[in-house]
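To: structure subgroup
Subject: Chain for Friday's discussion

All,

I'm putting the inputs and outputs inline so they're searchable in the archive.
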Amino acid sequence: MEIRTASMKDVDAIVEMNSQRCINEHNFYDKTVDIDYPKKYQEKLQINMRNGFGLAIVAIVMGNIEGYLIGSISETEEYRNIDNIAEIDSMFVKPNMRNQGVGEKLVDHFLKWAKLNVKRAKVVVSAKNNRGIKFCRKAGFTDHKTVLEMKL
């Protein structure tokens, strides 16, 4: 398995996997997730990659892209005593490649990149996504905040 920086040739595969991620998120965890978002995001992803903003990596197994991770550095809330934080914005591993170390390798690569830039990292996972929460905790993320929403 190889983890490498995504290229422009990888964008279509990333968008397709991101579409799968959004559909799963919408169907199982959060009906407010826009299943058309990945198509809308494609141009922004390409601009960010061209300009070197953030991190875009892919996992290659036997010559095929089997997963991706998009990460960024952003400012924290004014009340915190740190200026910036790294965040996993989006990540997906194809179902047939799960539990084979692909996700762990992607997160490890992200954390190494993040440590070069900031002192903390975060990931947002839907509260009902127990499998995703368990994965992130295993990677070293801990509960920090709880965000509550209500339908009006």
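Points worth raising on Friday:
The radius of gyration is 15 Å.
The longest strand covers residues 64-75.

D.
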